[in-house]
User: Fold these one by one.
Assistant:
Number 1:
Amino acid sequence: MYQRLVLVGRLGRDPEMRYTPNGSAVTSFPVATSRKYTTSDGQQKEETVWFRVSVWGKQAETVNQYITKGRMVLVEGNLVGDENGGPRIWTDKEGKPRASFEVRAFTVRFLDSKRESAPGAAATGGTPDVAIEEQPMTGEDLPF
């Protein structure tokens, strides 16, 4: 069986990079996807869904170097479930239950330049057109 998730959205905050005890780089960042639609009674609605994205290895270092809050990205990866296969469930500061979808990215494409991501901001130039890809896992790579 196989799954692949493709997201196009904007970063909700700057990426955070860390290293695992064995020295592997991992960068995490939230991505918001939105869709606008008209309800049956004619009202305009916008629906936003947030995804927590993690990127590993050399790709993590490159992503951390080039993207910032507000940038538009295309992410391809796998949806990561909790031990029961569902979204990660947690409680916010106000005691309300929340859930988040987590994605392990194997492709991250930068879709805009720094100038386009922050209207009115003084940018000294855009980032290079970079697409970082990691080979998706094959059946031999799966742990089961």
Number 2:
Amino acid sequence: MPDIAIADEELEERFVLSGGPGGQNVNKLATAVELRFDAGRSRTLPPVVLPRLRRLAGRRMTAAGVIVIQARRHRTQEANRKDARERLATLIRRAVMTPKPRRPTRPSKAAMERRLRTKKQRGQTKQTRRRPGSEE
């Protein structure tokens, strides 16, 4: 997959009031960022990436295919804006990587025999701990 560059026109940012630390600025300044990216209509994302992106995004993606990321960790608007964009980039980077196919494996015969041998030894150890004369 080639590197994917998302244009600023495809991103929609909205600034909202943020809770948490910040003193009086919390009530006066809109420092939290709500970043929206319409992945379903994006021309830069290859179609094979969309299902993986949908699975990775989870609740952050709407039914219409819009990814909504809320960033309110920092006190400044610029820091939250940068944080939201980095989180979106990380999400897309993870979706672009094709997962390695899983090959089912089986334990070797020697491993199975070792397991059974240790189970039998453990059972004998427990049997020696029983009270003498108690039979079940």
Number 3:
Amino acid sequence: MCGAVGAVRRPLKPRFSRPCNNWHFVGLAAAQAPDFSGGKLLAHRGAVSLSAWVLTTALAATAPSPESLDLSSSPADLQLVELLWARSPDLVAARAKLGQAEAEVTRSEVFPNPGFDFQWGTLAIGPTNPAGLDKLTEVPNYTFTFSQPLEIGKRGPRQAASRAARDAALLDAIETLRQRWFDLLERISEVATAEIRVGALDATVRDAQRLADLQLERQKRGDIAGLDVDRAVLEAEKYASNLGQERERLSAALLLCTQSVGLPCRPFGTPDAARAFLTARLGTTPPAANLDARPDLRSLQAQEASARSSLTLARNRWIPDPTFRVGYVLDQFLASGSQHQSLFVGVSFPLPFFDHGQADARAASALAEAATEAQLLLRAASARDLASLAQQRQAALDRRSRLMDRTLPLARDVVQRLESAVTRGGAPLPDLLLARRTLGDLQLDAADLDLFAFHLTVAQARVAGELPPLPESIPHVP
């Protein structure tokens, strides 16, 4: 349900990755760069070059960051995204790959280096002809040659290839950031759920202990038997043990959160604050599906264009690239009638009889077909996932609404009435213990149901293509 993430490497080197459940084809050779302007890729690409952006984000990553992620301060989504961009190891690697892709663009835009050749010729061996000539000053010639190769039909496809590869690398970096953001939201939701469960059990433990104290007082007065006191004490001990387990669960959730963001995570502090985090997203309308905006799918499009351009480049390898030469000759063998100074021009061609790009063409064609197939499969899987997730989420929300509006209020009312009756001696203790156990289980079920609905909401947002608020240092994807 979540798209794959990856960064495009050098041309004609494929890589597959599978961060969730869908295979994602990445790392295609750069091809003819599609026009991503006007809502396709970079919103302000003309204003800020990608190379400057890479430098800016690299410097931003080294800026001071907070010592911890305090969930009680209700950090905004943008704060979470900025922390991830600066501290997530996956994104550090994505920025490095993006810098490599930008370097390939620079490489494709420079011309081939010219050549210089010097030759010292006609070094006489044995007697000179005519005899008596100085072998160093009157016989040798000196040749100075400048050469410049000229590519025909290759610079355009190569440049388009590298630009498309860079675009794909940028989209892959944004997709990686998007997935890590959703992962962090899920880790925070687990912390919130653990805090809610701890709060519910803590209240249950206090009530159970209070009842055990009341039962002990009644036993001292001779109103009840010692067995009822033991039952109340055992019930309080059982809930205290459960509370200890939930606190361990909270510690484990905080550790996972810490591993996700790269900073120590601090809890919400109160069950109400934790519940507010969960209900804030559960109460929002799911985003409309926009698969065309998903960075992983757009990256595949760029990678396909990359491979198509590489295919054009490979097919143009049959065109010989001439190398033009111009030279100067200083000839001292004037006794033989040679011209003392002269110029020459020439051109040479390689003969692509054997290797004319057939292997590269086959590789690029395979990569383009794989990217096309990956897009089709990922879109089909996303459409199926969206329909299934929408149904599951709605069913979970319906269950949650029924539990919160009807079942829990009724259970609380029953416990309160039974507790009052047991205190007065008007109802047996087992009835109250059973009612309290039921209420405790329902409260824990409600917390788990909130977590389940939250995970479904996040999963639906992943597949629908929801983007987090991106920092200003990152080119925005409209």
